[in-house]
Amino acid sequence: MRIARFSIDGNVAFGAVEGEAAPGTADGLALNIIKGIPYGDFELSGTRVPLDKVRLLPPVLPNKVVAIGRNYAEHAAELGHEVPEVPVAFFKPTTSVVGSGDAIEYPSFSNELHHEAELAVVIGRMCREVPRERVQDVIFGYTCANDVTARDVQRRESQWARAKGFDTACPLGPWVETDFDPADAVVQCTVNGEQRQLGRTSDMVRSVADLVVHITEAMTLLPGDVILTGTPAGVGPLYPGDEVAVTIEGIGTLTNRVIKRG
C-alpha cells in the first residue's frame, strides 16, 4: 500500500494512494483518506480526493533522521574513501525535511551542492535493541530520499551537521510504500532529465536489517523515524534552476527543484 501525507483546504491528512498513472503524472491517482494516523491498525474512510488536487507533504514527520554514509563501495571510492569497518551514522534534523515538489534551497555558505539518491526506511513502532529476526516487525515501509549535501562544507568541517543538515537538505517522498522488498531494487537519480546515478539496493555493503540492528543498539527509534541507507556512485552538482528526481523501483519518484535561498 502507498500511503501519502497531504494538505487540502488547509487540512492535513494521510491517505492511501489508489490507481495507476503514467510516470511523471498524477492522472488517475486518488487518495482514500485514512481515519487517524497510519501506524498500526487503521481504516480507510472511503472518501477519495484526486491526487492532483492536493499538495503532497513529506510522507512522515520524523523525530529524527539517521543517515548512513559510504554504504555503497563505488560511492566511497569516488570520494576517495574506503568502506568503513562499521557503519558511519549521522543525523539530519527534522527542519531539513521537505516533500516531493518542495524546493531545495541552495545554502548561502556553500558553492558545491550535491545530490545523493537513497532508499529511506520508515519505522512503524517504538523499538530498541531489535534482534535481526524482528527487524521486519518494526518497519512501516519505504520511501525515496535525497541526502542533499554541501560537499565543500563536508570536506572542510569534521562534523557533517551543517553540510547535511541545513534547511531543505532532506527531501522525502512522494509516499511510503508498505509492500516493498529492499533486497534488490533500482535506485536512480536524474537532473533535468539526465541520468546521474544508477545503482541497486543489492549493492549496499550493509543491508536494511544490518542497519536497523546497528542503530537500535544505541538508540530508541520512534514511529515515523527515518533511516537513510546510503547512496550509489554518481553523485554530482546541483545548481539553482535544476530539477532533481530520485526514482526507486517499486516505490515512485521524488522530484524537487533547486532555488537560491532567500
UniProtKB/TrEMBL annotation:
SUPFAM superfamilies: FAH
One Pfam family in the UniProt entry: FAA_hydrolase
TM annotation in the entry: none
Domain Rv2993c-like N-terminal span(s) in chain numbering: 1-59
Keywords: Isomerase, Metal-binding
Domain Fumarylacetoacetase-like C-terminal: start-end pairs: 64-258
MF annotations from Gene Ontology: acetylpyruvate hydrolase activity; isomerase activity; metal ion binding
InterPro entries referenced in this protein's UniProt entry, alphabetically: Fumarylacetoacetase-like_C, Fumarylacetoacetase_C_sf, Rv2993c-like_N
GO biological process entries: carboxylic acid metabolic process
Database matches in Gene3D superfamilies: FAH, Fumarylacetoacetase-like, C-terminal domain
Protein name, per record: 2-hydroxyhepta-2,4-diene-1,7-dioate isomerase
Organism the protein comes from: Streptomyces solincola
